[in-house]
């Protein structure tokens, strides 16, 4: 399912580390520890709704009724019988629901328990580590819905997805919409959906990095007025205020890379809107170098846990490698940035500040306009010297007269 040209850039981003879900990675030796615990999770969940075997039989019959639809999700996997695939769906579905039910939703995000939970949650959003959403919904309706009728599967999964959401702003249920997603990763994708219609695009304006924008006086600030989680906006309307590019605050770490790579692979594989790909491309344009990352860090729009700015810029750059961008959801702010950058004053102010204010001694080594400055300075110096000599002569003359009179 993951396009080969994306997998070859970083295979580990698409490979589960702790738990396998569905048939693609089932049986991998490094995943056996949690695989052996799945029956315990299933038993804990089913015993809450009735006798174990009765509840199990009900779930199996429900899932078996959708076996042909399930096989469409795994058409490349011919090695499992219908019974084996049904048993796998029920086991994995019950594991996911019971795992979420037991989540430690409070405490330090980087405590041992939370880190373990986050690692499992990260595996549950890998593109090739999914079960169909309708299967999970059926099992949920037969189990959790009977215990907690006030909640929904989407709200329950939001607790899981909040663990691996790299953005500072939490996910919002209203962003998920009403249409059923393909799977858990598809639900995360819906949480990031913008609330506007993509404008018609003829071409993407030339990109400018954070350092380039800083040179022409653009201020970088966190976007705290988000209408969608990945929104960037450019403000240049307020008098006496610097033009400002607002960017959503994001945590740059290994989770960020895995989440974005799988969402992008999902967009490349399925016929869905590619707003996550757009975000990755926009970040690649802005954070082209370690210097850009450093300025973004100082501005508070990124929090990097990678140890160096070089690693962060390399990661953002590699995420976009071999990616096909069909639409660009930042066309409006990018056009406004290009219009501002290409205007006469900001462009020349940036050159002037970089050349003469930041390093004033360059004035005396420069050419062109600086040679005129040298000429003006020389002329002014000559005038000052002449004036001083004149004042000196005037001061000496009376003294000479007094000396002559005494004689």
From TrEMBL:
Transmembrane regions listed in the UniProt entry: 373-397
SUPFAM superfamilies in the cross-refs: Photosystem I subunits PsaA/PsaB (SSF81558)
Keywords (A to Z) from UniProt: Membrane, Transmembrane, Transmembrane helix
Pfam family, one: DUF247
Residues forming coiled coils: none
PANTHER family assigned to the protein according to its UniProt record, in alphabetical order: BNAA09G04570D PROTEIN (PTHR31170:SF25), BNAC04G53230D PROTEIN (PTHR31170)
Name listed for the protein in its UniProt record: Uncharacterized protein
Species whose genome carries this gene: Mikania micrantha (bitter vine)
């Amino acid at each position: 399912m993951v396009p080969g040209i994306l997998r070859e850039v970083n295979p580990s981003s698409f490979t589960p580390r702790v738990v396998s879900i569905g048939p693609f990675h089932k049986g991998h030796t490094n995943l056996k520890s949690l695989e052996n615990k799945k029956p315990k999770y299933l038993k804990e969940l089913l015993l809450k709704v009735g006798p174990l075997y009765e509840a199990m039989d009900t779930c199996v019959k429900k899932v078996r009724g959708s076996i042909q639809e399930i096989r469409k999700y795994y058409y490349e996997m011919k090695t499992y019988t219908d019974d084996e695939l049904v048993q796998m769906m029920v086991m994995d579905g019950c594991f996911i629901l019971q795992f979420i039910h037991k989540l430690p939703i409070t405490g330090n995000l980087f405590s041992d328990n939370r880190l373990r939970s986050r690692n499992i949650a990260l595996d549950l959003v890998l593109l090739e580590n999914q079960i169909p959403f309708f299967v999970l919904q059926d099992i949920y309706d037969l189990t959790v819905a009977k215990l907690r009728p006030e909640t929904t599967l989407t709200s329950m999964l939001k607790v899981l997805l909040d663990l691996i959401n790299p953005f500072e702003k939490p996910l919002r249920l209203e962003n998920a919409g009403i249409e059923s997603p393909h799977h858990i990763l598809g639900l995360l994708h819906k949480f990031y959906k913008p609330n506007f219609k993509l404008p018609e695009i003829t071409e993407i304006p030339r990109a400018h990095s954070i350092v380039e924008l800083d040179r022409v006086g653009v201020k970088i600030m966190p976007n705290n007025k988000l209408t969608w989680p990945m929104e960037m906006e450019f403000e240049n309307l307020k008098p006496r205020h610097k033009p400002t590019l607002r960017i959503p605050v994001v945590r740059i770490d290994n989770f960020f890379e895995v989440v974005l790579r799988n969402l992008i692979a999902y967009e490349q594989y399925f016929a869905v809107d590619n707003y996550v790909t757009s975000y990755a491309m926009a970040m690649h344009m802005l954070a082209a170098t370690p210097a850009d990352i450093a300025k973004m860090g100082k501005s508070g729009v990124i929090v990097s846990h990678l140890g160096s700015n070089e690693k962060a810029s390399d990661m953002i750059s590699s995420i976009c490698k071999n990616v096909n961008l069909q639409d660009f959801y930042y066309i409006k702010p990018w056009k406004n940035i290009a219009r501002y950058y290409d205007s006469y004053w900001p462009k020349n102010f940036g050159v002037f500040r970089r050349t003469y204010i930041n390093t004033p001694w360059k004035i005396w080594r420069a050419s062109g306009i600086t040679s005129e400055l040298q000429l003006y300075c020389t002329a002014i110096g000559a005038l000052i010297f002449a004036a001083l000599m004149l004042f000196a002569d005037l001061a000496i003359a009376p003294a000479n007269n007094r000396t002559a009179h005494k004689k």
